[in-house]
Amino acid sequence: MQLGIGTYTYGWAFSINGQTTTRLFTENHLLEKAKSFGLNLVQIGDNLPLHEFTADQLKDFADSAKKNDIQIEVGARGLTAEHLDRYIGIALKLNARLIRLVIDQKDYEPGLPVIINIIQNALRDLEKHHITLGIENHDRLKTSEFVQIVESVSSPNVGICLDSVNSMGAGEGLEQVVKALAPYTVNLHIKDFGIQRLPHSMGFQIDGRPAGKGMLNVPWLLENVSQYGRCQTAILEQWVVPESDPEATIEKEDWWAQESVEYLKNYF
Where is the Xylose isomerase-like TIM barrel domain positioned along the sequence (predicted)? Predict the structure, then answer.
C-alpha cells in the first residue's frame, strides 16, 4: 500500500472559508509538500475542483507531477452520470488510476437504484481505461448501503474509499465500519481523531488529531484493510482544530502533516 497526501491533508489551506490569508495552497504546493515528505502520491479532492481547471492547467499539473515522479489521484463530489464521465476524462488527462467520489452534494442525495445505475453505465469506460472508482463512505448512507452498491455493481473497478471517521456521522463506530467495508476498500483515508466530553458534560465533541496522537489504531486499521489485497493507496487526511487566526491555522495544519507523515512512514 502506498502512502500519500491530499488536498484534505490541508483542508484549511485549500479553503479557508472566506477568511483573509495570503497562504492558500495550489496543486503545485501539494506536489512540493509530497516531495518534501519523500512521498510520490497526491490525491486531489473536491476542495480543489479539477473540473474548473482549463485544459492548459490540467496539462501543466500533469507535467509537473510527472517531472517530480508523483502519481495523481482525482476526487469529486456529486454522483451524476455527467459528472462521473467528466472525471473519467480528467483522470485520463492526469494519468490517474483512481477516482475518489462522494455521492452527495448540496441539494442532491440520490437513492440506491440511481447510484447503482449511474455506476453500471460507466463501467465500460472505467474498465477500458483501467480506472478504479472509489465511493467514499460519507455520513448519509449506512455501511450496509455502501456494501449493497459495490456488490450490485460487482466490478473489480468499483470499490470503497474508506474514511476512518466519516461514518460516525451516520451513527456507526469504526470497528463496525471496517469490518463491513474493508473487503471492498480500494483507497484508504487515514484520519486520526479524538472524542472528549464537553465542559458542561452534556455531550461529546469529535475532532481531529495528528496521526498516532488520537484514538485511531493505525496498525489495526492497516492490517484489516490490507488483508484483502484490494487497497493500493492510503491518503493522510486531517481534521485540524482551527486557531483564531487563519495564518496560524495553516501553520498548525502543516505541523500536524509533518508529524503525521513521520509517524505513518513506520507502517509503509
Answer: 31-264
For the chain, the domain total comes to 1
pLDDT tens digits, one per residue of 71-80: 999 999 999 9
The average pLDDT across 139-161 equals 96
Cell numbers found for residue 196: 472528549
The answer to whether 172 and 145 are in contact (CB under 8 A) is no
CATH number at residue 129: 3.20.20.150
Residue 119 has pLDDT above 60, yes or no: yes
The boundaries of the domain holding residue 38 are 2-267
The answer to whether 18 and 53 are in contact (CB under 8 A) is: no
pTM over 0.85: yes
Residues 212 and 236: their CA atoms lie apart, in Å, by 12
Burial class (CB in 10 A: 0-12, 13-18, 19+), 243: middle
Contact assessment for residue 158 and residue 136, using Cβ atoms and an 8 Å cutoff: no
Q: Which of 162, 245, 163, 246 has its CA nearest to residue 208?
A: 163
Q: Which long-range contacts (CB under 8 A, 24 or more apart) does 146-149 make?
A: 146/180, 146/181, 146/184, 147/180, 147/181, 147/184, 148/112, 149/112, 149/115, 149/116, 149/119
